[in-house]
User: Fold these one by one.
Assistant:
Number 1:
Amino acid sequence: MPLTLFAHPFASYCQKALIALYENSTPFTLRMLDKSDPETFAEFEALWPLKRFPLLLDDGRPIAEATIIIEHLGLHHPGPVRLIPDDPATALEVRFIDRFFDNYVQTPMQTIVSNALRAAGERDARSVEAARVMLETAYAWLEQRMTDREWAVGDRFSLADCAAAPALFYADWTLPINESFPKVRAYRNRLNARSSFARAVDEARPYRSFFPLGAPDRD
Ligand SMILES: N[C@@H](CCC(=O)N[C@@H](CS)C(=O)NCC(=O)O)C(=O)O
């Protein structure tokens, strides 16, 4: 069954879904969401009026939300790398950590980045400050969690790590993960070295000028 992904390589939630596709070498066609291609955007919007990407089209059926796309792939297009563990209790922990990265790392990071995209008079310093506090708190919580761990849950790469990789990649560009969080920094380095994510990062390289805070000269 043909799979199509509406996505942009630089977008963090798209990278999350791409990691899952690359982990299992799942064949798919990329429909690039680029402002210079309004027809693809219109097609995407007709399928998913909430206009948040990525969106997977599986034999014509739209599947939204990066986490749900990864769950869908595991259910309907499984490969050798099982990103949702078979054990229900471990799977629940994976889903919790996936929520942690989306809600408490990606969301505050997106708040700070979107604020920077606004005109000077429309910026919201209070939301940015709250987002910074949330990110710092998330780094501190994760620092404790990553003591003696290679991956976010158990001893295998999972959905939780798919969520973590782009979240920590861009969070560090937004509010640097400082030296008081060595476990988080080491985990981010491990994620960056994972071949599925390294490929997504490489494919996004040409778009670094899009980062409104100014992309640092490093991964
Ligand atoms: N909850 C969605 C969030 C997706 C999301 O925020 N995607 C960003 C790109 S990384 C987007 O659609 N941005 C376009 C916009 O905000 O208008 C998911 O998990 O897939």
Number 2:
Amino acid sequence: MRLDGFAPRTTLLDWLRLEARSTGTKEGCAEGDCGACAVVVVRERGGRLSYEPVNSCITLIGQLDGAELITVEDLAEDGVLHPVQQAMAKEHGSQCGFCTPGIVMSLFAHYQACGGATNRATINDVLAGNLCRCTGYRPIVDAALQVCNGAAADRFTRSAAARMQALRMLDDKADVFVGDANSFFAAPASEDSLAELYAQHPDATIVAGATDVGLWITKKLTPLEKIIHVGRVAELSRSEETGDGFALGATVSLNRAALLLGSIDPDVSEVLRRFGSVQVRASGTVGGSIANGSPIGDLAPMLIALGADVELRHGRQTRRLKLEDFFIDYGKQDRKRGEFVRRLHVPKLPAGAHFRAYKITKRFDEDISALLAAFRFDLDGARIAAARVAFGGMAGIPKRAKAVEEKLRGLSLADTRGWRAAADAVREDFTPLTDLRASAAYRSGVAGNLVIKALAELAGVDAAATRVAERRSFAHAAE
Ligand SMILES: Cc1cc2nc3c(=O)[nH]c(=O)nc-3n(C[C@H](O)[C@H](O)[C@H](O)COP(=O)(O)OP(=O)(O)OC[C@H]3O[C@@H](n4cnc5c(N)ncnc54)[C@H](O)[C@@H]3O)c2cc1C
Ligand code: FES
Ligand code: FES
């Protein structure tokens, strides 16, 4: 299908329901939380078809350029329900049915992606972004276990080669520009085109995954007129492993980043597993997560503790700075008008270095952090030679805890009085706020306790004793 004209801020959900009259896809929260609007977007990645569930309420129609869109209406074949739909019906996975199209689409994406083998924990992750208020998840998970354990066999697998060919033909590597100089949706195909366009229109809004920007549209009703989507810029979507770390292009999705960064330490993996939902991580990007300057984002504190750099570009000029220096103050980053985030450079842990990260939320899955603590310790035997400690949720920006770091330097792991002094130093570093997620007293108390928890784990207390549900307790034995 070809669309030549649309308002730049049109969401995929509005287009589906109001223009295409494809009303099987539902609107619940309109902010990416409930998954009622989930659809599947198919793209070629690494020579294979990648089936990605996304929340259509916070996806802009223009983001779909060059991709295949599958909605719940597309699943049945000649009036026969898709295997995922059949399993849901057989296991009584639906009652009022409002959540069902979204759940079916999330499971359809998993059915295609899981290679015929899945388990309950994986399905729970897959469904973390799909809210069902009346059926209960047991029959839904049973349906998923039944249908996803076994090779995918449907009309999408049969037509995969032809659809791949069609996607390749759509990939014309040309810049997209819909609208005029005052109001447009643009999707440059190269970094040079992006740099030029953004320098010409520094007042434009960059959109990567739109998991933040989408909410400005649906919740704040922000009248965005000029949108530059960076998702088609080939150079920004690349990631590579360098000798001592990873270079991640700004538009690498959080799901893709998790595969690489998770290899640094199981805690990175665990925090990213709890970052939003599969849908949010499929759309949301590492660049967006840094550029938004969020004081409660999960990625920035972990990357600061690891010692990452951010690379920026303005016109032809590029520059690289320590990530902690990018965040200046609440809502203020070291980024000029017309400058964009190009790449993140994340070092691996050298020998003798250890990492810990803890995400504190009211609800375990799909919840924004009240605070996030991240630690890198460089050990010299049983003594801490150096430490990098960063917190989210404790200040107006993601920030290093320099006083805590100072107390940790040279500390013997056996010195439990020293642990307490390091924990108390949190109060020198931060004066947190009270908001709907946590009180200031709670934040300070928990932050100090997390310092102690990290030290206890480092000193050899098994994670099975320090953690209730996170999965490091299983990975820990291998350390
Ligand atoms: C339901 C839900 C759950 C969420 N859960 C979490 C969570 O658990 N943890 C968490 O940290 N966050 C969470 N978020 C927030 C959000 O997903 C992340 O901040 C995400 O990483 C933003 O990335 P994006 O690509 O979608 O950014 P976008 O929405 O596209 O952009 C965000 C901001 O960054 C700017 N921007 C994007 N890319 C660039 C670039 N390359 N250069 C310059 N500027 C750029 C945009 O102009 C905008 O100001 C959640 C959001 C939703 C909707
Ligand atoms: S309507 Fe709730 S996630 Fe889109
Ligand atoms: S079946 Fe009613 S909300 Fe899920």
Number 3:
Amino acid sequence: MDPFVFFGGKGGVGKTTVSCAYALRCARDGQRTLVVSTDPAHSVTDVFDQPFDDSPRSVDGIGGLDAVEIDPEDEVTRHLDEIRQDLSEQVSASMVNEINRQLEMAHGTPGAYESALFDRFIDVMRNADSYDRVVFDTSPTGSTLRLLGLPDLLEGWIDRLIHKRRTSIDLFEKAAVGNAEPRRVMEGDPVLARLQDRKEFFEFAGSALHDDAAFFLVLTPDELSVNETERAIVALREENLAVRGLVANKLTPSPDPDETGRGGRYLRERVETEAARLETIRSEFDPPLVAEIGWRSAEITGDLLADVADELDIETAAEQPTHV
Ligand SMILES: Nc1ncnc2c1ncn2[C@@H]1O[C@H](COP(=O)(O)OP(=O)(O)OP(=O)(O)O)[C@@H](O)[C@H]1O
Ligand SMILES: [Mg+2]
């Protein structure tokens, strides 16, 4: 299995539960594992009944497992602050107010959230040397993946910006001929350094996600979730990312044969409908069903998490990363 594993899916289907269960299983199999959550509802904290924050902390009682909880709202603020910082060093004081105004507006724009999270995911991947496996609770959405679909375009765009910046610095340096000391500013130019940095960032993101990441989708056996899963498989495929497997969660338990009352009939009907949906998935969807997890009567924490971990037919042995 690739070093980076993502679990995506619709709201509430069990992404956090399955990510934590898989991470637990990897850690049990001797992989140094980090589980990364971006859930504003702090679910990793709930699952392990222990507070987590922005920096990795070890999960009590489970050797080799760390967890980190990234707050998307903080991430957007940090991301925009970095841009603000970067820009204010480059421009005249009179521009700074205008930049601040633009950035305030950017805070609420669609995509700011996802783009900040995408950056943070990639950042975690770049700094994951001390782990064999990093499990992400939530795969990048269609719109963040589109960033990946544009590597050539982005690279071409950044290359052109780099070229422009070089040309203008070159002119600036030449304009100084005649002075005693020629101006040398190409080296150490902060704008060039920043552009170069972004270029490398996207190159890394592309190769890490294509060569070293596996994507799984979690679904519940209802029509909305199944349709959404189908769309997600297509969206990922469009970015040349194959979904490795599907995890069906919250399956209705079968009643005992002697339960012939209303409750029994209700469960039996549901079980049948769900079985038909799962059959459709098996026969029509490319990625295999790698787990069928029953609906428990309680929240999945503690021992229940270990049970769910046993039900995942997803291998844990870590492959060497190729992106390094
Ligand atoms: N198989 C299951 N049986 C019973 N409860 C479950 C099962 N799987 C998940 N749950 C419960 O359902 C709720 C939602 O699960 P979870 O938080 O894992 O979903 P999610 O996809 O991460 O949700 P969100 O989109 O809000 O982040 C939780 O309370 C969890 O304990
Ligand atoms: Mg969640």
Number 4:
Amino acid sequence: MSKSRIVITCAKGISSYLQEEILGLGFPILSEEISSIGTEGTLEDTLELNLLLRTGQRVLFLLKEFKARDPEELYKKVFGIPWEDYLSEDGYFCVTSSVDTETIRDSRFANLKCKDAIVDRFYERFRRRPDSGPERKGVVVHLYWKGERGLVYLDTSGEPLSKRGYRKIPLEAPMQETLASAVLLAAGWKGDGNFINPMCGSGTLAIEAALIALGRAPGLSRDHFGFMHLKGFNESLWREIRGRARKTAKRPFDGKIIATDLDREAVQAAKRNAATAGVDHWIEFGICDYSETPVPEGAGIVMMNPPYGVRLGDKQRLEGIYKGMGDFFKKKCEGYEGYIFTGNLDLAKKVGLRTKRRIRFFNGEIECRLLEYELYKGSRKRPSYRGES
Ligand SMILES: C[S@@+](CC[C@H](N)C(=O)[O-])C[C@H]1O[C@@H](n2cnc3c(N)ncnc32)[C@H](O)[C@@H]1O
């Protein structure tokens, strides 16, 4: 099987974590952008990337790069791709795009041109044409068209990889699974010690922390990927890759993962999500105010993602919560590393502790910070760190 360029997209600002993961799987890094990493491999390599990457969003396999000055030229170039090698004439496909070119304003027109080119090619050769539509339930074709440069990819993920398949019950303001993973990697969580997650909401951080601690592949709970619809999909290789991933998912973990929230419904949802992800036995859940969360003797990470006002809660109440988090860290979390993930830096000042690191993230369009507090036993003055904002 021949190699091609593979572009793996991710949420804005987390590409350095994705890069580490890709290197860890033995793939080269060919480019790095704010929300994607370029590598190379075969179409079969995309199976492993889809199953194992924690911070990637879509795994795009390049079929063709070309010059297209207008929609007619785009049609011709897309028509020239041997679609019958990837798609069956009775199959289904969907076209998505990212378009920034002067010749058209509406990316839906570019999608339509691609779709027409694909079905016309089939009709010309077989007098039959595959179905197409907006749902990502079959082969997904992705067009990137910027200026005169066009690139056509197979989106081998189909649905974005942040949809792990375990979040059955959505709540307000959940963290995206891929972002939660990046935040945990930024905190250096590898499963050493305990992971304490007050204000757990739907449990994303605790579930991702358990998956990392156990070495469990994030894609194991998902039963659908775009590559499964490609002609010649190697099902036995897929079974083999999944089997291998299941075996490595048995890493011993002797720490505790504790997740609590004041909201009973949130805890119920988190429990069910954890059960779907297959990690409920590894997480102790509780309904309580964050300040009552049990913190076992020992060391590890205490991580909180409090409401930050933009979408949830009101300012005064939130100021009280943030101040209280500082007290909770000081009184109950000595010896741990404390983290707060928030999109509200004014509120974060109320914590009243000096930060050791401030790492920038984006939750959708909201600029956020992961704030690290080192909670030494006894009080100790620490220097502030440079190069972090
Ligand atoms: C931004 S959400 C957390 C989202 C979570 N990271 C997820 O992915 O679903 C904040 C959570 O804090 C909880 N919360 C707010 N005030 C609290 C308090 N005083 N004690 C415990 N939990 C609280 C809310 O119920 C909500 O679930």
